[in-house]
Amino acid sequence: MIIRVFGVGQFDVPDDSMAELNELDDALTGPVERHDDEALHAGLEKVLEAVRRLGTPLPDDYLGPSDLLLPGPDSTWEEIREMLTEEGLIPD
Fold first, then answer.
1. Which residues, 6+ apart, have CB-to-CB distance to 80 below 8 Å?
2. What's the pLDDT score for residue 66?
3. Residue 3 in contact with residue 10, Cβ under 8 Å?
4. Contact in structure between 92 and 22 (CB atoms under 8 Å)
5. What is the mean pLDDT of each run of 10 residues along the chain (92 residues)?
6. What's the pLDDT at 32?
7. Using CA atoms, how far apart are residues 83 and 10, in angstroms rounded to an integer?
8. Least packed by Cβ within 10 Å: which of 48, 52, 56, 89?
9. How many helical (H) and strand (E) elements, i.e. helices and strands, does the chain have?
10. CA distances from 67 to 38, 83, 85 (A)
11. What is the pTM of this model?
């Protein structure tokens, strides 16, 4: 799966790593419901760190489509909220 992180780049993440990413993504529910900006950004950073750890960075000139878009580490609360769905940032 190709995952684009805004402001960071694209990563080719193996499909068998998605369970770990979904688990980290599920942990964002509490901070979102509490409107806890600090915890939301900390949780997002864990998701992004896992994408970097599990995925292979693609070259900057890669022009293929992304399967998933994630907010970057400097995203605002509003930007993150816009990207959230009922399944979180990462669909199950």
1. 40, 44, 71, 89
2. 94
3. yes
4. yes
5. 95 95 90 88 95 96 92 88 86 82
6. 82
7. 17
8. 56
9. 4, 4
10. 28, 14, 15
11. 0.90
Sheet holding 56-57, edge to edge: 56-57, 9-12, 2-5, 68-70
- Give the length of the chain: 92
Neighbours of 45 (CB within 10 A): 12
68/77 Cα distance (integer angstroms) = 19
Structure tokens at 6: 């805004």
Q: Which strand (E) or helix (H) includes residue 5?
A: strand 2-5
Give the N- to C-terminal CA distance of the chain in Å, as an integer.
13
Residue for token pair 């900006």: 37
pLDDT value of residue 3: 97
